[in-house]
Amino acid sequence: MLSLTAALPGPAHAQSRLTSDMPPTITRPVLSSSSSLVNPMQIGSDDGATTGCHYYDRYRTRGSEVPAITTCDDISPEWGGLRQMLVDHGILITGVLAGSLTYDMLGHDAHTPHYVGQNLTYNSTPGFTLTFDLNRTHLPFWKDAQFTMTGYLWRNNYPGRGPNAFGMSQFSIVQPFFTPRIAIQYGYTEFSNQFYGTNYGTSTAASALGPSSVIPIEVGMSNFFATPSFDVRFFSKSMRFYDHFGVARSVSPLGERADVEAGMGLEWHVPKTGALFVNEVGYRVRPSGDHHMMWLRGGAIYNNTSFFNYSQNKYTRGNQAFYAAADYQIMQFDRKIPSRGMFMNFKADAAPPDRNVFARDISGTIYFVGPFASRSKDSASLGFTFNKLSNFAYAYRIAQGATAARSSNTTTASYAMHVMRGLYFTNSLSYVHNPAPTPKLHDAFLITSGLTMSL
């Protein structure tokens, strides 16, 4: 998995590494026939079954923009009868075992690596998700509400890839508020999963190894561990237009390592952190037999935490970012499986260059969900990302006598193969010009192979 490491630090105590990697949780296309008007915060639609894996999908976690894994594609959907017994009590438990290896085939090994894959890099993230239907409490306030708890154990051999620790990525409740057109979520969430939609279309398998933006994470959005948060979504009468507002504790400007050292993601306060605010507006049509998928959204992020200012050589309060993204299903291959097809994605992000290493990025991707009739659960993607690095951070590093890059671009092709029920094998090739902001390095040609098992 491709990573860009922001190694243009301020003072020594502010050194941190920023990464565009997300936990490699590779999920599959959602194969249930969902209405284009469905409220994503409500219990999902199913095929009318009252037992079995399609019925279990009604209890999958809600609120996140990461597409949920269908239990029908788990290694053992029934768990020998245990899953039915748990669901009878409103509980759904799912698990994932994911791991990957990345290596630069141009042979740029180094004693101190500066990017993922410069030396052979491994990553593993076993995790679990537990949901509970709060209707079972019979409390009026929690009507149609759901509790979700998700935890991961991150392991890797490259510090910029993420933590080496166990932590919670979600511990929250999502529920309608007076009307189905208003939904709230509160507790602890990995905020980058709640907004923006970093996974393309209806499947994360197509984009798990493709380009993504580091900018929302750079300005303080939580990416690994959950942070205290509250968000509310307002839907139009058609359920297609929405406004999504949220507030959360910022990740420490010293990097997510500071959050890791503070605990496992359930801390109300971490030193030197403030509040992060996000507002996103969008228009969304989910794929169905009558509609191609379309999702247009744009948002603004503001963080009142103090960040190191490269132009002033000191910390100044406040940081912000802006983003826009669009997904469209160009072709639909099978009306019975509306999520199958050819899609395109466009993204753009911007942040102030005086307080951020990554100041601008733009990316485009063509991806396929179920590219062949005989491989309806496979996914493929081809994407390009251009990153404009901060001129202020560049000058700051040059003044220290180091070398640095002014921009970086990445071309990535990936394919996720459905090997058997519950098992996916994903491979990608990425050519990266300037794989690290500093020092300035030779181009990299990364190969990544990963396995994901759903339980």
Describe the secondary structure blueprint for this structure:
Blueprint: H1 53-56, H2 82-87, E1 91-104, E2 121-124, E3 127-133, E4 146-153, E5 155-156, E6 166-177, E7 179-189, H3 215-218, E8 227-235, E9 241-249, H4 256-262, E10 275-285, E11 294-309, E12 314-332, E13 341-350, E14 358-369, E15 379-389, H5 391-399, E16 407-420, E17 423-433, E18 444-454
Antiparallel strand pairs: 1-2, 1-3, 1-18, 2-5, 3-4, 4-6, 6-7, 7-8, 8-9, 9-10, 10-11, 11-12, 12-13, 13-14, 14-15, 15-16, 16-17, 17-18
Give an overview in words.
With 455 residues, this protein is mostly beta strands. 7% of the residues lie in helices and 42% in strands. The protein has helices at 53-56, 82-87, 215-218, 256-262, 391-399; strands at residues 91-104, 121-124, 127-133, 146-153, 155-156, 166-177, 179-189, 227-235, 241-249, 275-285, 294-309, 314-332, 341-350, 358-369, 379-389, 407-420, 423-433, 444-454. A 16-stranded antiparallel β-barrel has the order 1-3-4-6-7-8-9-10-11-12-13-14-15-16-17-18. The protein is globular and about 65 Å long. Mean pLDDT is 84; it is low at 1-38, 43-47 and 201-211.
Q: What's a concise summary of this model?
A:
This protein has 5 helices and 18 strands.
Number of helices: 5
Distance between the termini: 23 Å
The assigned structural class equals mainly beta
Sequence of secondary-structure elements: HHEEEEEEEHEEHEEEEEEHEEE
Mean pLDDT: 84
How many E-type strands? 18
If you compute it from the alpha carbons, what radius of gyration comes out, rounded to the nearest whole angstrom?
A: 21 Å
Q: Please indicate the percent range of residues in DSSP E strands (runs of 2 or more).
A: 35-45%
Main sheet overview:
16 strands, antiparallel, barrel
Helix content: under 10%
Spatial arrangement of strands, main beta sheet: 1-3-4-6-7-8-9-10-11-12-13-14-15-16-17-18
Low-confidence stretches: 1-38, 43-47, 201-211
* Basic shape: globular
